[in-house]
Amino acid sequence: MKRLMLFIEPTAAQVNIFSQFTLPRLGSFILAGLVNRRGSWRARVFVEGRRRFDLAAWMADHGRPEVVGISTITPTVKRGYALADECRALGLPVILGGPHVTFLPDEALAHAPLVVRGEGESAMNALLDLWNDGHVDAANPRYAAVPNLSWKDAAGTIQHNPLAPWIMDLDALPVPDFALADGTAECLVGGKKTVMVQTSRGCPFDCSFCSVTGMFGKRFRYRSVGSILDEFRRYDTREHFIFFCDDNFTANRRRARELLEAMRTAGFRFQWSTQVRTDVGSDPDLVRLMKSAGCHTVFVGFESVNPRSLAEMKKGQSLDDTRLAIRVIQQAGIHIHGMFVFGFEGDDRDTVEATVRFAQQTRLTSVQLLILTPLPGSELYEHMRAEGRITSFDWDLYDTHHVVFRPALLTPLELQQAQVRGHQRLYSLPECLRKLVAGRWVSAGLSLYGWKTNRDWQKANQPYLRTLAAASPPAGADRTSRAWRALVAEQGNPAPPGPDGR
User: Fold this and answer.
1) Domains along the chain?
2) Torsions phi, psi for 396 (to 5 deg)
C-alpha cells in the first residue's frame, strides 16, 4: 500500500474581498505532484475556504496520512499553527512551509518539528529520499542535508540549513492537478471555473512593502511556451477562466508576445486575467495583443496617487505612468481592477480623498483600497519593527484590511476609516445603479459584491474597531505624548518578533 501525504492550505480568519472565492495557491499542488511521482507515495490536498478542514472526517475518507504539510501566508498562519498542533496531538508528523514561516522559522518550530523556507521543491525531493525506508525522527542528523530546512537537533538547538539554488527549469515541475483536492479547490466566478496558472517566478522590483523578492528572488524565471500551452489544453472550454498568478505577466515583453501569439493562434476558448505594472501602458500594441488573445481583466497595483508615497515604496512608477496605463488598457477594451494602498509616511486625509476621486474619474471597473501592512520578509516590516511602530502581532489582522502599525500623519482609526469609507463611496447602492444605467454590467456586479463585502466586514469587526478607537488619539492630540503611548501599551502591544520569530 502506498504511503499517504496530506497537504493543507488553511483559510484566513477575517472577511475579505476573496472570502467568497476559493483561489488556491499552487505550492501545495506542485509539491503533491512531486510526491505522486514516487511509486511508493500518494498525496492529496485540502484547500480551506468554503469548507473547514475536519481531520477525523478526512481520515475516515482517505486513511491516516504518514506526513502532513501545511502551507501558510501571514493572515492564514494562526489557523495553520492550530492545524499543525491538532495533527501533532494525534502523532502525525507535520511540515510547515510558505512565505510567513520562511521569514519567521523559529516561531513556526513551536508548532512543527520541520519548517521549509523559500521554494519547497528541492526540500521535498530531499525529504522523500530521506524517508524512502520509513519514518525518520525529526532530530536525526541526516536532516542536515535537506536544503531550505529549519529543524531542531538532538540537543534541541535550532538549525537553519542553507538554501538551495533557485529552480531554473520550471518545466521540470509538475503541472498542478486540482483534482487532488476533492473539489475544495474549485472556484466559480460568474458561473465559470476559475483556474490558477503560473508561468513565471521572481520579481526584480523589490517594493518596500512586498515579500515576493525574499521568497522567490529578483530574477524572473519562466516556463516554456510549449509547457504552458499543454496546460491550457486541459481548460480549453468557454466554461473556464484562467487567472495568471505571475507577479508581472508582461515583465519580459518579448516572451509575453511569444506566448500571446501562440495563444491567439491556438484559438483557446477561455478568457483570462493577469497582473501587470503600469509600464504596460508604453506598449499599446502589446495590450491590444493581450485583448485579441482573450484577456478580460488586468489587476494593476497603482498603489498611490501621492508622488511622495510612490517614491517611498520604491515602485519605480509615476502618476503619469498610471494615467497612461489606464488610457491604453481601457482603449483596448480590457477591464481594470485597480489596487491602491493607504498608510505611507506622506499619506493624509487629502491623499485618501484624491484616491477615491481618481478611481471614480478614471472609471476603473473595480477598485481595491488596501491598508499598508508590514508583512514579515519585507523592508517595511524591518523598518516598522525597528522603530517600534507595529501595534499588533496578531497575524490574523495582516490581511491588508486592518491597521497594525502607527501611521505618520493619520491615527490608526483614521486610516482604517479611510479604507471603509472609501469603499462605501465606491461601492454604494446608488453607484451600482448608475453603472447599470450606463450599461457597465461587469462593474455594476462587482460594485454590488463590494458593497456587501464592506458591510459584512464592518459587522464582523466591531470589537476590533472599538479597540482601534480606544488606541487612537482624538483629532489634534499629540500622538507622541506619554499618555497616548501608555494607552497604546494598554491594548496589549507585544514585543516584536525578530527574523527568527523571537
Assistant:
1) 3-160 (3.40.50.2300), 187-471 (3.80.30.20)
2) -60, -25
